[in-house]
Design goal:
There is one protein chain. Among the domains are: 109-217, no CATH class; 224-295, Alpha-Beta Plaits (2-Layer Sandwich), CATH 3.30.70. 47% of the residues lie in helices and 10% in strands. The protein has helices at 32-53, 75-85, 90-106, 110-114, 117-134, 147-162, 166-170, 172-182, 188-200, 205-210, 212-218, 240-244, 279-283; strands spanning 20-22, 28-30, 58-60, 64-67, 70-73, 226-231, 266-268, 289-293. A hairpin with a 3-residue loop joins β3 and β4 (64-67). α5 (117-134) packs parallel to α9 and α8 packs across α9. It is globular. The two termini are 36 Å apart. The mean pLDDT is 90. This is Menaquinol dehydrogenase NosGH, membrane component NosH. InterPro entries: 4Fe4S_Fe-S-bd, Electron_Trans/Redox, NapH_MauN. It is an enzyme of class 1 (oxidoreductase). Its EC number is 1.7.99.4.
Length: 299
């Protein structure tokens, strides 16, 4: 992908070409998307190795695991367990606090782009959706992202009322993760059904409007040190970044005429929904977007 010579929108470039980016001096290197996919594959490879050949580096699955014997647990899943059983399980508490601490520091919804396996196949579905949209076979349908919080409350209430983890029955992230690790096929049809919805009805519907896991991590986004920064003076307002973004509303300032602080040149993307996927950085031909490491300011 040569972002300096091609408008690298979802429609204009092939999925595979986005794994390699061309620099200004013509050199090719792995894109941020490549490294995200590498991370997702590596995490699940370690899970598979633990299950298949007993290489116990990372055990379990995406919802609850152990890394070198240390417990990790998805915070939303742990909250469901607490509401369903009315008990605090020490290992889940330790695991949840560890995960929460990590994402508070490093990335809020970074889980959604750098760890979640469903995000990978959802991005492929997104490409198909945009191709169909270009041919006017499907129409774009956009909803309020706050629906995720409504679903979060609903599933927590159902866990409390039914004493069971209701969300895990429908959780396409967990289902797909267990399919990869253990080969479980019994609920994979839900993953396929969700992909069909995203291809023919609404782009990235699960991640944008449904997933309580992403909603939980979005609450941690404000204090994290790593964010995307935008250089107002470099930007030419082409809006390719908003085309590829999972949650384009976080890039509202890139629109021409958007109200911004005139005294500032650099802006940190502060939206809670940003997943730090880096797609905006990958496609910006003006290099107006980049990762901003807040740790440097602490040193």
């Amino acid at each position: 992908m040569d972002k300096y010579n091609v408008r690298a929108t979802v429609r204009n470039v092939s999925f595979l070409s986005t794994l390699i980016t061309t620099t200004k001096d013509g050199k090719k290197r792995p894109s941020i998307r490549f490294w995200r996919i590498f991370t997702i594959v590596l995490v699940h490879l370690l899970f598979v190795l633990s299950y298949r050949v007993d290489v116990q580096i990372l055990e379990g699955d995406i919802s609850a695991s152990r890394i070198l014997g240390f417990h990790l647990a998805d915070a939303f899943m742990s909250l469901q367990v607490f509401l369903a059983t009315h008990e605090i399980h020490v290992n889940l508490l330790i695991g949840s606090l560890s995960i929460l601490a990590f994402y508070i520091i490093f990335g809020g919804r970074g889980f959604c782009s750098w760890v979640c396996p469903y995000s990978l196949i959802s991005e492929i579905a997104e490409k198909i959706h945009e191709n169909l949209r270009a041919k006017k076979i499907v129409k774009p349908r956009v909803f309020d992202t706050k629906w995720r919080y409504a679903f979060t409350i609903l599933f927590l209430a159902l866990s409390f009322a039914s004493s069971s983890l209701v969300f895990e029955i429908f959780n396409v992230v967990g289902i797909f993760s267990r399919f990869i690790i253990y080969g479980y096929f019994h609920a994979i049809w839900l993953v396929v059904a969700m992909l069909v919805v995203e291809i023919f009805f609404s782009r990235r519907a699960w991640c944008r409007y449904v997933c309580p896991v992403g909603a939980t991590y979005s609450l941690l986004a404000k204090p994290n040190a790593i964010k995307v920064s935008w250089d107002k003076e470099k930007c030419d307002h082409c809006l390719v970044c908003t085309d590829v973004c999972l949650v384009p509303h976080v890039l509202f300032m890139t629109k021409k005429g958007a109200k911004t602080d005139d005294s500032k040149k650099l802006f940190r993307i502060a939206g809670a929904d940003c997943t730090l996927c880096g797609r905006c950085i990958d496609v910006c031909h003006q290099d107006a977007l980049k990762f901003d490491n807040g740790f440097k300011k602490l040193i």
